[in-house]
Amino acid sequence: MLHLALVCRCTFEQALASVVIAHLAKAEQQAALPERIAHAQRQRAKLISIGGGQVVERTVTEAPEELLKAAFADLESERAQFYDPKTERPETLQQMAVFEWAMKTASEQAVLATTVAASGLTIDPALARKLRREQRHCRRPASEAQLAEVHVEHMTATGVDERA
């Protein structure tokens, strides 16, 4: 639960929303999004400004990393007002970093799952190359079935759901 002053809450929430939009835009540039996410993207504006008595759609053109860096700078500045700066500032920065990492890895996994599914491959090409390099030092190279088994173990360990 965040107990932030209004200024920090707005900065934090706006940064989180902007980072989500930036990651989705980046993922769309890299590959087609899964249909359920693409459908949601087409429905309506994801970030709006409601100041001045008007509703205005906001667009995000910066990279997620740039937005995160700016959000950290805003939250670390003296302008950011917290009820208890000594405890809330580090907690807020930590929550921002954890959220951004989760969003980054989720969007990368969605792009990977879409790319792998569209190509007809059963294993992530980068993982296959890594496994083949490791296999060069073995007497018997791995079969496609063994590589697929390792791939499933890897996807399970990293939490990727290929059905998404």
Q: How many H/I helical runs?
A: 6
Helix content: 55-70%
Order of helices and strands: HHEEHHHH
Average of per-residue pLDDT values: 75
Instruction: Give the end-to-end Cα distance, rounded to a whole number of Å.
Output: 29 Å
Proportion in β-strands? under 5%
Spatial strand order of the main sheet: 1-2
DSSP, total strands: 2
Structural class: mainly alpha
Integer tally of domains: 1
| Most strands sheet | 2 strands, antiparallel
Question: Gyration radius, to the nearest Å?
Answer: 21 Å
Which descriptor suits the 3D outline?
Answer: flat
> Which consecutive residue ranges, at least 5 long each, have pLDDT under 50?
1-8
Question: If you had to describe this structure to a student in words, what would you say it looks like?
Answer:
The chain is mainly alpha-helical. It has one domain (6-120). It has helices at residues 6-30, 35-43, 64-76, 85-119, 125-135, 144-158, and strands at 48-49, 56-57. The chain has a two-stranded antiparallel ribbon with strand order 1-2. A hairpin with a 6-residue loop joins strand 1 and strand 2. Helix 1 packs antiparallel against helix 3 (64-76) and helix 1 packs parallel to helix 4 (85-119). Mean pLDDT is 75; it is low at 1-8.
Give me some keywords for this one.
two-stranded antiparallel sheet; mainly alpha; 2% strand; 2 strands; single chain; 164 residues; disordered N terminus
Short recap of the structure:
This protein has 164 residues and is an all-alpha fold.
